[in-house]
Amino acid sequence: MKKQSVVKRNRNLRQSEEFTAYAMLLPSFLGVILFLIVPLVIVVYLSFNEWNFAQGLAGIKWNGLDNYIRLFQDERVKISIANNLIYLLNVPITIVLAVLLAAALNKYVFFKKGIRVLYYLPFISSMVAVSVVFRNLFSESGPVNQILENVFNVSEPPGWFLSSAWVMPTIILIQVWHDLGNSTMILIAGMQGISRDLYEAAEVDGANGWQRLRRITVPLLTPYLFFLMVIGVMNSFKVYDVVKVLTGGGPGQSSNVLVYAVYHYGFKMYEMGYASAISVLVFLIIMAITIFQFAGQKKWVNY
Amino acid sequence: MTEKRKAFLLKVLMTIIILGIAIVVIYPFLWMLSTSFKREIDVFDYPIKLIPETWNFENFRKVFADNRFFKFYKNSLFIAMCSVAGNLCLSSTAAYAFARLRFRGRKAIFAFYMMTLMIPLQIVLLPKFIIFQRIGLYDSYLALILPAMISPFATFFLRQAYMSIPMELTEAGLIDGASQWRIYLKLIAPLAKGSMVTVGILAFIDSWNDYMQPSILLRSVEKFTIPIGLEWFSTSNSSNYALIMAATVVSLIPILLIFILTQKYYIESIAASGIKG
């Protein structure tokens, strides 16, 4: 008799626990559906349609794969894909610099807390503010070119973001500058998890600083390097702010990137269907590369 | 002894090098700050003087005299605070359910949440723009606040924090007759305060610095946030470099203050999660 009531009480408790769980989850879950899943479904649907936004909902016309076929013939999209690929260079550059900086900051430097903050400042600054400052720093007669001309005797300094050859390197430079502190901090966190004994043993065996970095630190940091790589690659395909504010995709179309192309077709030309197809392309590229990276990690990441 | 001395000298040398590079890294900030106090005609003088020869406070006066800049501040602050509060409420309750309650479908729903982490915000912005146009939220603060309340990342982060708290606490609470809501509010959430602060700071900075969403979802200048306000200000004063730099300084101050005040939490958070950006 008594046992039965305990069982019953437990069942009630479980049921009420389940009810509480759903109640707690519901607002967030609805939000995920409403602001992530529904938009994703809409953008996929629109990518198979032609829709000039100005014509209202009635203007939506199914056109099958036309948008996707157009992607392959569109000069702007081709330039954008090429630029996104070039832009990927920011990832290895940032990681290499961050490894060196983290190794130095972790062990060989006084006042490391204060210095860390300095390196971190770019990362918390908005890309708009950063772009506005760099626009002046790198302008034709701006401070950077003044220094190049007068200190380093460069007779014809580059036009930076005003030259179609230099615009992507300039943007990569800004991105590296922006991310370096954050990547460094993540790696320092990783380094603090490495046992001191390993370094001491290596020292006894006569390994120098460089060998210790290469043979101990870097291999044991691979999970962190992998993480930085995955996030960095994702962010490289999402880049937009700096292009929009600093270059407007120019000069000409030379600094167009995919998300900027979405903006161009969607919000300037109001070709919502075609802009959706570009969005889907970005999503597929990010997914494919991320899956590829996870599949490849066994080869080089040590957990 | 000589070994020790060598190590010490190496450390001094490295400090000088790393500090030197740090100065190059923050040079854009130094230049911005110094330019904001210069007269327009001195901006591109060479040799570059980081300490202005003639101090000029006129730029800041002009920025503050422009009422709209204050409005941008207020808008950004309002949107960021609502986003943070909403995000914390929704993400922490969901995280509590995932971490500490048993219910059918828990694993599957959590896996679904983790998958949504892969959806780039840049990709769903266009359909969100269309939806908000249809339902009348376009050009309103809600268009920015509502989506910002949803964060699978914050949910994941808080779930990890709640999971590290011993289950015995919940059992003790249940024996005392407390409901799960009460246990969550009075026992578990207070213990995860540090993680909540971290999530709050990250969400605040994200909202404050967000450029793409407000630039697409807002139209009226009086509703602008700081980033689009700054862009607008710099295009409408395009050749007043010193003035633009003053506006940029003003736009950066809150976030720098927050960062310096909450540095401990912030740096711990990237150490703990790694995820950001």
Helix-residue proportion of chain A: over 70%
- Note the gap between the termini of chain B: 46 Å
Q: How many DSSP E strands of chain A?
A: 2
Q: Order of helices and strands of chain B, N to C?
A: HHHHHHHHHHHHH
* Overall outline of chain B: globular
Keywords:
heterodimer, A: 303 residues, mainly alpha, MetI-like fold, 2 domains, two-stranded antiparallel ribbon, flat, B: 277 residues, 13 helices, globular
Topology:
The complex is a heterodimer of chains A (303) and B (277).
Chain A: H1 2-46, E1 49-50, E2 61-62, H2 66-73, H3 75-87, H4 90-107, H5 112-124, H6 127-137, H7 143-150, H8 167-191, H9 196-204, H10 209-238, H11 241-247, H12 258-268, H13 272-296
Antiparallel strand pairs in A: 1-2
Helix pairs in contact in A: 1-13, 2-13, 4-8, 4-10, 5-8, 6-11, 8-10, 10-13, 12-13
Chain B: H1 2-36, H2 58-65, H3 67-100, H4 106-116, H5 121-135, H6 142-148, H7 152-163, H8 167-175, H9 180-191, H10 193-209, H11 212-217, H12 226-236, H13 241-273
Helix pairs in contact in B: 1-13, 2-13, 3-6, 3-7, 3-10, 8-9, 10-13, 12-13
How is this structure best summarized?
The complex is a heterodimer of chains A (about 300) and B (about 280). Chain A has about 300 residues and is mainly α.
3D architecture notes:
The complex is a heterodimer of chains A (303) and B (277). The longest helix of chain A is centred in the first third of the chain and has 45 residues, at 2-46. The mean pLDDT of chain A is 89. In chain A, α1 packs across α13. Chain A is 74% helix and 1% strand. Chain A is flat and about 70 Å long. Chain A is an all-alpha fold. Chain B contains 13 helices and no strands. Chain B has helices at residues 2-36, 58-65, 67-100, 106-116, 121-135, 142-148, 152-163, 167-175, 180-191, 193-209, 212-217, 226-236, 241-273. The longest helix of chain B has 35 residues, at 2-36. Chain B is globular, with a radius of gyration of 24 Å. The two termini of chain B are 46 Å apart. The chains are: A mainly alpha (303), B mainly alpha (277). At the A-B interface, α1, α4, α5, α6 and α7 of A face α1, α3, α4, α5 and α9 of B.
